[in-house]
Design goal:
The complex is a heterodimer of chains A (about 450) and B (about 325). Chain A has about 450 residues and is an alpha/beta fold. Chain A is built from twelve helices and 15 strands. In chain A, β6 (about 205-210), α8 (about 210-225) and β7 form a beta-alpha-beta unit. Chain A is globular. Chain B has one domain (about 1-320): ABC transporter involved in vitamin B12 uptake, BtuC (Orthogonal Bundle), CATH 1.10.3470. Chain B has helices spanning about 1-5, 10-25, 35-60, 65-85, 90-110, 115-135, 135-140, 165-185, 190-200, 200-205, 210-235, 245-260, 265-280, 290-300, 305-315, 315-320, and strands at about 145, 155, 160, 240. In chain B, α3 (about 35-60) runs parallel beside α8, α3 (about 35-60) runs antiparallel to α11 and α4 (about 65-85) packs antiparallel against α5. The longest helix of chain B has 27 residues, at about 210-235. Chain B is globular, with a radius of gyration of 19 Å. The chains are: A alpha/beta (about 450), B mainly alpha (about 325).
């Protein structure tokens, strides 16, 4: 493609010289004739007056910074996509009201990826080569991230994902892919294990979907609970096509102290309902990831069984008694009420535990672009280096979820995690982990890869 | 020379098909960067559709399991690159071999049925293949899939992540599949396949071993689908379970129906039209799938045999000489 681009550049360069006209003569080495200078000045004035030049001049000063937003508008990720979109729009509105980035407004160019890796990679290509976006941003589902990242790396467009997958920090991807706005599943699981073992029990049975997301939980938690002196005594993998869960419950050992579940998808309500019917009032402690119930009201009929159980939350959905000013501000800006629902429609429940990642990522992009004095696509490598140089991110309006620690080598951020208890129809935060609880040794150093 | 011309369907057909390949070769020098990349994808996926057309358009085998063959090629190549450190050409051939073997096994069983039963059996095979990807998640990474290492994505020293190299390889594969399909369509084999499609009992009565011919057609079809899958994984660097899902059994059917079943150029036109229909409408409305649905309904109403199939019919004998 480099050849094609060269050809295009040559065509553009050639367009500056009217066909058939001889170049103006100069007055010899180092000397210019008066006619030549006048002709040159006249030509420059004419060029400046031309519409194309005006656009170019503005591009250097006030043309918008284009952020390609790879959004799951359709497909399995649509509920997440809807709220990622709202959060992104809210953050961009605030950033623009505060003067944009380097004095330039931010423009979101959104494209639906259908929550599909093929379309996802096409969308990244479109951002880089058709829309002229400065960066690509906002992807959640792991398979879309993994499918798109190779193309982002090849096209050298910074790709800021908000996925919580371990794929970034695992070293699977490339230097152009970063996850600075949300913690990854490995960190989340590691941070949960001490509290679970100390407060709920040490003999754990895991129920998880039999695909990569579930396998991540299975592998990382098994290791983490063992480090706390606990043990996973049974692992029950549910096939992705399953809609009837009753037959799996008899496999849960009687000595189970904690049932750890991470089911996702449309079968979640059936899963919880059938689990309630199986156990009745005599159940072990139950711990789950709110991923199961993102965009679903906790007081939904059929979920009564969850009363007294516990959930991981990236950011507490229900406003807590000790709500921070940042959380209050962020909620109002995005349009979310104290119950985590849309202020316009209380039945429209947000994906509150994850969507803050879009907000925080955009503020990191702003900070990175300002740090490297970002000019345009030629500054993309400098932007990557500027973000890699970041480490401490204090809680604030830019980080309403809480303080973070970014690892420039692994391109992954670390932060606080929350454990909430279901009490009636409320989610009440009972524990917040430290950032250190979720740290683990580096598995990659992306800074060794060329830009 | 006349033998080659006959194989390509006569001078008009040869001019049209070879002309298209030539136009595509030149097109890359003028296409904008995004369309240049998109065309590489379209050419590879068109090979998948051309393969599907051999089974469906020419033989009348409506398979709902071609994702299995596409996936076999993709995973064959991707896993060989990932775990055996076999680079480009070797990985591609392993993918192709995996697809041919898979088609032979699945075809040998599925072809004992016909009609709706054949559709269901092929669908079940594809679903089994899809779930196999999940079952061996430790290697395939299940739904997440995996990135094919850049060092394995080479062909005779050329990096497959280079856009120009990618385009030439996609075009070469497309040219082989297109000319191959044309040769099949014009050959004795192709005529027998059409005879089977039109009246299987009559073909059997004439002494043709219908089962063997159908299996041959299916293996050619599966090989093209597998070649497309292997090339797609190696050229774009990602192998994932979504490419083995039911969606990838339906897509080639839609591409072929749109372009024209039983027309050699139909699959290419259908793949091209469907790609840009989604690409352009998704930039205008979030309800782009509704637009695609309406377009398909309009197609059935006004182009019941696909764009080129209907055109060929309207042009009569002249159409047949251009569009075999």
């Amino acid at each position: 493609m480099a050849e094609t681009r060269d050809r295009r550049d040559k065509r553009t360069a050639a367009a500056g010289t009217p066909r058939g006209k001889k170049p103006a003569k100069t007055g010899g080495a180092g000397g210019l004739s008066r006619r030549g200078v006048l002709a040159g000045l006249g030509g420059a004035a004419a060029l400046t007056a031309a519409p194309g030049f005006v656009r170019y001049s503005q591009a250097q000063s006030s043309a918008p910074i284009k952020i390609g937003f790879q959004v799951h508008r359709t497909g399995i990720g649509a509920a997440y996509g809807r709220w990622y979109d709202r959060t992104t729009q809210a953050a961009v509105k605030l950033i623009n009201e505060a003067g944009g980035i380097n004095g330039r407004p931010v423009e979101i160019v959104a494209e639906d990826d259908g929550t599909d890796p093929k379309r996802g990679s096409e969308v990244v290509e479109k951002f880089a080569t058709q829309h002229g976006c400065d960066i690509a941003f906002g992807t959640l589902f792991s398979h879309v991230v993994i499918g798109s990242a190779p193309r982002a790396g090849e096209l050298k467009i910074p790709y800021f994902v908000v996925s919580e997958g371990h794929h970034v920090a695992s070293g699977m991807l490339n230097r152009y892919t970063l996850q600075p706005g949300i913690t990854d599943v490995k960190s989340q699981v590691i941070a949960m294990a001490p509290w679970i073992s100390q407060n709920l029990g040490k003999k754990v049975t895991m129920i998880f979907p039999d695909f990569a997301f579930g396998h991540n939980h299975r592998d990382f938690f098994t290791e983490a609970i063992a480090a706390q002196g606990g043990e996973v005594i049974e692992r029950i993998a549910i096939p992705p096509t399953e809609s009837n869960f009753f037959k799996y419950f008899p496999r849960i050992p009687r000595e189970t102290e904690v049932l750890y579940h991470v089911m996702v998808g449309p079968g979640v309500l059936t899963f919880v309902k059938e689990m309630g019917e199986f156990y009745g009032s005599n159940r072990p402690e139950i711990f789950g990831f709110i991923d199961s119930l993102e965009a679903v009201a906790i007081d939904n009929p059929g979920l009564e069984f969850l009363d007294g159980t516990y959930f991981w939350e990236g950011m507490p959905r229900h406003a807590q008694a000790d709500q921070t000013a940042y959380d209050k501000f962020y909620r109002e800006a995005v349009g979310v009420n104290a119950r985590g629902a849309s202020v316009d429609d209380p039945k429209d429940i947000s994906t509150y535990a994850h969507m803050f990642g879009c907000w925080e990522t955009l503020y990191i992009v702003k900070k990175g672009m300002e740090a490297c004095d970002y000019k345009g696509p030629e500054s993309r490598a400098a932007l990557i280096e500027a973000v890699e140089a970041m480490s401490d991110m204090p809680a604030g309006m830019a980080h309403p979820q809480g303080a973070k620690l970014f690892n420039g080598k692994t391109h992954q951020v670390f932060g606080h995690q929350h454990i909430s208890a279901v009490r009636g129809s409320d989610l009440v935060t009972v524990h917040t982990t430290s950032i250190e609880d979720g740290l683990y040794p580096d598995e990659v150093d992306y800074t060794t890869q060329s830009l | 020379m006349s033998g080659v011309l006959a194989l390509l369907g006569g001078p008009r057909s040869a001019a049209l098909h070879l002309g298209l390949i030539a136009v595509l070769a030149v097109l890359q020098f003028v296409l904008a960067e995004y369309h240049h990349i998109a065309m590489s994808r379209i050419l590879v996926l068109a090979c998948f559709a051309i393969g599907f057309n051999i089974a469906f358009g020419y033989t009348g085998l409506l398979s709902l399991g071609h994702a299995l063959f596409f996936g076999a090629g993709m995973y064959g190549a991707g896993l060989a690159a990932q775990f055996l450190a076999v680079a480009g050409p070797g990985a591609f051939l392993i993918g192709l071999a995996a697809a041919i073997a898979t088609t032979l096994i699945a075809g040998a069983i599925a072809l004992r049925t016909a009609g709706v039963s054949f559709m269901i059996v092929t669908l079940m095979f594809a679903q089994a293949g899809y779930l196999t990807v999940y079952y061996f998640g430790a290697y395939t990474r299940g739904d997440e899939g995996f990135v094919v290492d850049a060092t394995m994505r080479t062909l005779f020293g050329l990096a497959l992540n280079d856009a120009t190299v990618r385009y030439w390889i996609a075009l070469a594969l497309f040219a082989v599949c297109l000319v191959g399909a044309l040769a099949v369509a014009r050959s004795g084999l192709g005529r027998v396949l059409v005879a089977i499609r039109e009246n299987e009992e009559r073909a059997r009565m004439l002494g043709y071993d219908v089962y063997r011919y159908k299996l041959t057609a299916l293996v050619i079809s599966g090989a093209m689908a597998g070649a497309a899958g292997a090339a797609y994984g190696l050229l774009f660097g990602y192998v994932g379970a979504s490419f083995a899902s039911i969606q990838y059994s339906i897509l080639p059917l839609l591409w072929v129906l749109m372009g024209g079943a039983g027309v050699v150029l139909g699959p290419f036109l259908g793949t091209l039209a469907m790609f840009y229909l989604i690409d352009l409408t998704s930039g205008v409305t979030t309800a782009y799938l509704l637009v695609v649905g309406l377009a398909l309904i309009a197609l059935i109403l006004f182009f019941p045999k696909g764009i080129l199939g209907t055109l060929r019919e309207k042009l009569g004998a002249r159409g047949a000489s251009w569009l075999p």
